[in-house]
Amino acid sequence: MNEIHRAPATAPDSARGANRFDAVWVQKSLGVLRFLESVHALPPPSRALVTFAVMWAPFGGSPGEDLLVTFGVNRSRFLSLLAAALSPEQRDQRHVRDLKSALRDDLALSWR
User: What is the pTM of this model?
Assistant: First the structure.
């Protein structure tokens, strides 16, 4: 199988405690994101949204002003768009659904 289409072995590690959303988590999450895009489970317009969310996760999310300038939405709307982008779909393979759900749940937790 081509390297670009190889699924990450697991979702980002959700059991690491207080420092769970660290640089290692960010790198793993970006790998999951690349995989989801490579198998067409994440439309290109959603990539920027999810990438932004992953990059800001270690900080509890971004300031509202950045969301407004970057995406033209407030925090509540951004989180709704993010959840929709990572919602598993019926056509997704089980592994893809699991990866989407884990990333969606981690981002929801980190952006609280």
Answer: 0.83
List, for residues 1-53, the tens digit of each pLDDT value: 444 455 554 555 544 455 789 999 999 999 999 999 999 999 888 999 999 99
Separation CA 11–CA 96 (nearest Å): 10
Evaluate whether 24 touches 34 at the Cβ level (below 8 Å): no
Alpha carbon separation from 58 to 25, 26, 55, 68 (Å, rounded): 9, 8, 7, 20
The conformation of residue 58, written as its DSSP 8-state character, comes to: G
Domain boundaries, given as residue ranges, for the chain:
20-110
Rounded to whole angstroms, what are the CA distances from 97 to 21, 47, 54?
A: 21, 16, 18
Token code pair at residue 54: 């992953």
Give me the amino acid identity at 35.
Answer: F
C-alpha–C-alpha distance, residues 34 and 23, integer Å = 16
Q: Which of 31, 40, 39, 41 is nearest to 10 (CA)?
A: 31
Q: What pLDDT digit, counting tens, does each position of 64-81 carry?
A: 999 999 999 999 999 999
